[in-house]
């Protein structure tokens, strides 16, 4: 019998499955487990958005939309970005609707990188950017820059050092802010300084801003203001409106760049479901402040979880956005974060994500998602405190 697995895309079989999802499945089998794992808001989609989706179905919006997305959604998204963040994009030629930001990232990596190019990724970071580059497998080299000694922020000095080492091969800088897994974000001045390093060089800046509406301590900053012509902005409705299942993302870029990204989208997706686009249009158009109550609740949860973890003995970067806390495992406990999370869930019935999932700088850390009810946070802290007291050497 022929083993056809040997004839699938080279290298694909060697890539591991998503360890975050694998562990979440394991933890779900524990009956009373408290899960601080998956990054998904535990709120309902606002009612006016749900009604827009229902109306779209009853109005028989059941046919193909334009490949780049309905013009209504693109106009609403462009207006939202302009009103909220001062980002200026032409909805006709510079906005593309995708299957969540996940597809935006895949399309952009495929459209903008060639064999031999270098993609610079500040870490710890959500692994999707690197996974996409590995799956595409065009001979792209991924350079991971450990930011754990710099407050989990990329510095201009470290970015310049990469350019000095790799020269003209550097083609893309990946930026995610507020950042998954740390919740850290950048000021406009910090982004301006990074932009100055790559300004007027043939380097794309992929800026994943999906958590833009969940900034707690100040306004959302964007590298687009610093470097419009080189920046590719990604956003969407998943986090700010609790619409993860609607799968609507937005990618914005100067016309010539977006045209190339859109060619990939046309090939692999064609277009998004029209009712979901109509719902997303309603979110961007009439839900500009929908995220405020959710953000206020997330901030309360952040404060309780951060205070509780630090009192137990965890060192944490205080999140400035998103809904994650990245905590260093206290000394005296198992320091291998991949072993630690299984021990914690088996003994304390608390599930967290290993820091190593997020690449260099994540070793010895664990990620908490506080997209869970306050009562679960409080109970989870009690269980963790008991676990540390019992098992710390």
From TrEMBL:
Is this entry keyworded Transferase?
yes
EC numbers listed for it are 2.6.1.-
Source domain of life: Bacteria
Molecular function, one GO term: pyridoxal phosphate binding
Gene Ontology biological process terms from the UniProt entry = amino acid metabolic process
Cofactors: pyridoxal 5'-phosphate
* Residue span, Aminotransferase class I/classII large domain: 32-384
Enzyme class label: transferase
List the Pfam families: Aminotran_1_2 (PF00155)
**What are the alphabetically sorted keywords of the record?**
Aminotransferase, Pyridoxal phosphate, Transferase
Family named by the database record = Belongs to the class-I pyridoxal-phosphate-dependent aminotransferase family.
PANTHER family, alphabetized: ASPARTATE AMINOTRANSFERASE
UniProt-recorded name of the protein: Aminotransferase
| Native organism | Lactobacillus apis
């Amino acid at each position: 019998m022929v083993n056809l697995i040997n004839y699938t895309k080279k290298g694909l079989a060697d890539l591991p499955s998503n360890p975050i999802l694998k562990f979440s499945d394991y933890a779900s089998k524990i009956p009373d487990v408290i899960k601080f794992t998956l990054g998904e808001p535990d709120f309902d989609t606002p009612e006016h958005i749900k009604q827009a989706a229902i109306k779209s179905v009853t109005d028989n919006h059941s046919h193909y939309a334009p490949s780049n997305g309905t013009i209504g959604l693109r106009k609403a998204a462009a207006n939202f970005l302009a009103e909220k963040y001062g980002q200026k994009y032409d909805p006709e030629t510079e906005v593309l609707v995708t299957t969540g930001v996940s597809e935006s990232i895949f399309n952009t990596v495929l459209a903008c990188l060639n064999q031999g190019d270098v993609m610079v990724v500040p870490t710890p970071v959500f692994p999707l950017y690197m996974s996409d580059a590995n799956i595409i497998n065009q001979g792209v080299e991924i350079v991971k820059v450990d930011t754990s000694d710099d407050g989990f922020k990329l510095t201009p000095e470290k970015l310049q050092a990469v350019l000095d080492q790799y020269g003209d091969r550097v083609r893309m800088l990946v930026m995610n802010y507020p950042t998954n897994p740390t919740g850290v974000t950048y000021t406009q001045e910090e982004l301006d300084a990074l932009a100055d390093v790559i300004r007027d060089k043939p380097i794309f800046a992929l800026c994943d801003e999906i958590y833009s509406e969940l900034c707690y301590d100040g306004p959302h900053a964007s590298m687009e203001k610093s470097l419009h012509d080189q920046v590719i902005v990604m956003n969407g409705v998943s986090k700010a409106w609790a619409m993860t299942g609607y799968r609507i993302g937005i990618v914005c870029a100067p016309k010539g760049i977006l045209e190339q990204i859109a060619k990939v989208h046309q090939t692999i997706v064609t277009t998004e479901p029209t009712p979901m686009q109509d719902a997303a249009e309603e979110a961007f158009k009439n839900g500009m402040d929908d995220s405020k109550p959710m953000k206020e609740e997330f901030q309360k949860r952040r404060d309780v979880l951060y205070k509780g973890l630090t009192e137990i003995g965890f060192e944490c970067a205080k999140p400035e956005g998103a809904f994650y806390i990245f905590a260093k495992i206290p000394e005296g406990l198992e320091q291998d974060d991949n072993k630690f999370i299984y021990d914690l869930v088996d003994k304390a019935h608390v599930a967290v994500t290993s820091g190593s999932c997020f690449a260099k700088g994540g070793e010895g850390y664990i990620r908490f998602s506080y997209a869970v009810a306050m009562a679960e946070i409080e109970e989870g802290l009690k269980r963790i405190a008991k676990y540390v007291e019992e098992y710390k050497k």
